[in-house]
Automatic annotation (TrEMBL):
<feature type="transmembrane region" description="Helical">
    <location>
        <begin position="57"/>
        <end position="73"/>
    </location>
</feature>
<feature type="transmembrane region" description="Helical">
    <location>
        <begin position="284"/>
        <end position="308"/>
    </location>
</feature>
<keyword id="KW-0472">Membrane</keyword>
<feature type="transmembrane region" description="Helical">
    <location>
        <begin position="223"/>
        <end position="242"/>
    </location>
</feature>
<feature type="transmembrane region" description="Helical">
    <location>
        <begin position="248"/>
        <end position="272"/>
    </location>
</feature>
<protein>
    <recommendedName>
        <fullName>ABC transporter permease</fullName>
    </recommendedName>
</protein>
<keyword id="KW-0812">Transmembrane</keyword>
<feature type="transmembrane region" description="Helical">
    <location>
        <begin position="93"/>
        <end position="112"/>
    </location>
</feature>
<keyword id="KW-1133">Transmembrane helix</keyword>
<feature type="transmembrane region" description="Helical">
    <location>
        <begin position="183"/>
        <end position="202"/>
    </location>
</feature>
<feature type="transmembrane region" description="Helical">
    <location>
        <begin position="25"/>
        <end position="45"/>
    </location>
</feature>
Length: 325
């Protein structure tokens, strides 16, 4: 099928619609945030791909990680049921979309002469379209009892959606297997931090109203719950750092920095509540700054702006929804 025929087909109409929606989301994010976010995002992704491509095993991890990210997004699609009821061939449309999303990564792999991983990525990405959405396994949902308090709904629903409780022992096992290198627990902590993207979902406004406390008290409670679970889940990785070359000093510095990043994720969510696009881009910006600008002269200034500005903005934003001073 020629490219002109593809764009004139129903698949092309769907892809054009997705492009329009993406453009609208970018306009909602705003030019200022995009100017700050996109360079850091491209640098972080590009650096990770460059490192993985030259590594004999890391290059094969790229298609698996990208397919897993696409699967996580696919299972949470809000338009899945609409597409299923209006377009019988919607899975083919989704397969094209996921293949196009994976294409830039495949091009980078080919440029690094990782031909096998590039072919595997282009084979895995379209297959994601045939995975069921997270809402279809309701029977297993009834049997699954969360170890987290219902108030910490991000952990309850997020761990179920991302299969975090299954991933956590795998990360602990891999980090313990490579405990001689401090990079193993650090990489596991980074992956676990990405699992905590469950803080990128906004709860209904009614849940804020039922909290019946001031914005300051509400934020303290959210931070206390989130940081408690985050610390408990990250403790094995810190223990591996203590027993390795990093020692107590290195492990303590990593623990404090990691928990501070989780706290910034939480306050960034409420700084732009309930606009998920805005606070997700802000969370991505914070993560990019922390990972890429460490040691840069502007790093302390940007971190100070985030640490002071986001809590202030979050209390100001919550005041619009919680009527207590």
């Amino acid at each position: 099928m020629r490219s002109a025929d593809v764009w004139a087909s129903p698949i092309g109409a769907y892809l054009r619609l997705r492009l329009r929606l993406t453009g609208r989301l970018l306009r909602e994010v705003g030019a200022v945030r995009l100017t700050l976010l996109l360079p850091f995002l491209f640098m972080s992704v590009g650096q990770a791909l460059a490192v993985a491509t030259v590594h004999p095993r890391g290059r094969w991890a790229v298609p698996v990680v990208v397919a897993w990210l696409l699967l996580s997004v696919h299972r949470q699609r809000s338009d899945y049921r609409f597409l299923a009821t209006t377009a019988p061939s919607f899975r083919t449309w989704l397969a094209w979309e996921y293949a196009l999303l994976a294409l830039p990564v495949a091009v980078v792999l080919v440029a690094g002469r990782a031909y096998g991983p590039a072919a595997l990525l282009l084979a895995l990405a379209p297959l994601v379209a045939w995975a069921p959405p997270s809402g279809e396994d309701r029977a297993s949902r009834r049997r699954w009892r969360s170890p987290f308090r219902s108030e910490a709904f991000e952990w309850v629903s997020g761990m179920r959606a991302t299969k975090g409780l299954w991933l956590w022992p795998v990360l602990v096992g891999l980090a313990g297997w490579q405990r001689a290198s401090p990079l193993a627990p650090l990489a596991a902590l980074l992956v676990w931090l990405l699992v905590l993207a469950c803080y990128g979902t906004a709860e209904p406004v009614s849940m804020l109203a039922l909290a019946a406390r001031s914005p300051k008290q509400f934020l303290r409670r959210r931070l206390r719950l989130g940081l408690s679970y985050a610390a408990a889940s990250a403790a094995p990785f810190w223990a591996l750092l203590v027993s390795g070359p990093a020692g107590w000093g290195g492990a303590l510095a990593v623990a404090v920095s990691w928990l501070a990043l989780v706290a910034l994720f939480v306050v960034a969510k409420y700084a732009f509540y309930p606009n998920e696009t805005h606070f997700r881009t802000t969370q991505g910006l914070v993560l990019s700054i922390v990972l890429l600008l460490l040691g840069h002269p502007l790093y302390p200034v940007l971190l100070l702006v985030a640490a002071v500005g986001l809590p202030w903005q979050s209390r100001r934003r919550l005041q619009q929804f919680i009527g207590y001073k």
